[in-house]
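does this look right to u?? zinc ion version
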Amino acid sequence: MSLPPLVEPAESLSVDEIRRYSRHLIIPDVGVEGQKRLKNAKVLCVGAGGLGSPALMYLAAAGVGTLGIVEFDTVDESNLQRQIIHGQSDIGRPKAESAANSVREINPYVNVVIHNTAIDRENVFEIFGQYDLIVDGTDNFATRYLVNDAAVLLGKPYVWGSIYRFDGQASVFWAEHGPCYRCLYPEPPPPGMVPSCAEGGVLGVLCASIGSIQVTEAIKLLAGIGEPLVGSLMVYDALEMSYRKIRVRKDPSCVLCGENPSITELVEDYEAFCGAVSVEAQEAVVDATITARELKEWQDADKDFLLVDVREPAEFEIVRIPGSVLIPKGEILSGEALAKLPQDKQIVLHCKSGVRSAEALAALKAAGFKDAVHVQGGVLAWVKTVDPSLPSY
Ligand SMILES: [Zn+2]
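got this back:
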């Protein structure tokens, strides 16, 4: 299905712009007309991280006239393996500012708009309202559903992408012409089922593979060329080096874009809707949580307990809390590891940030380890408050 161009052409291109964009202008399907449309376009990138980095750089280079960047985070050393819009000297700076600098360096004709904030239900309409098209580079389900719902309610298209380890997906969601994200994924995955990139890792270059698909789709929509990914899901497997296109139909019973929608405004609390941790885990940690400092005090006082690290072996290789033994969360949840655990000692669980250990704690308590506790903030809290000489990751 081809669609009409999303934006009207700008009045003219300057001599400098004609020189700069000449390799676009000589493509018949783009031409001066298409380039003028890009010049007149206003595109918002949600996130200046893994996907936002290549997306912003190519949108800028392509000559998109106005580029918005919404991002609240600051640049961390562990971002630089994939977030190529930032550099070594940007560590500690707001990502939105660092990204804006790079965009200006790539193309001074781009008008960059910085939204140095987290997108939320209070500001999303006001921010989205300023743009023709949204590129979603977020990495968590709460924001993804917020972006989708706001885009559908405003009648705006957006280009979605997601990445994990060696796998990527991309699509264009535009309720007027096809399905929305909720048609494809009506429910967020259960808490703890889908690890984030921070927990599961991502091959850096995968960001470029998926980010470039997102920009390609953005350009096609803005200029009205080709067949956009509306109603199609692109699935990329870097290990197999395969791209597959899967048909996605609009769900007539979709709660948001279906025939009788039950969602007609933004959901009250997207974090709660997507549940960062399960109800069981939330209940398990009550009165069973210690801080990293308390763990250190317990160790210094020679308290008798077993410290269990529920992360994965690769993470244990990177950094570990002294005295910990590794039993990955999966072995605890499956029950496989329960026989290995002593009955006569208190068990102290920890992971990277405290989410996985909370899930494991719920399983342990259900199995009868009543006095088990977990460490709030996990390894990250240990490195921050007890031993900053250890690496964070
Ligand atoms: Zn829908």
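The mean pLDDT is 94. idk if thats expected tbh
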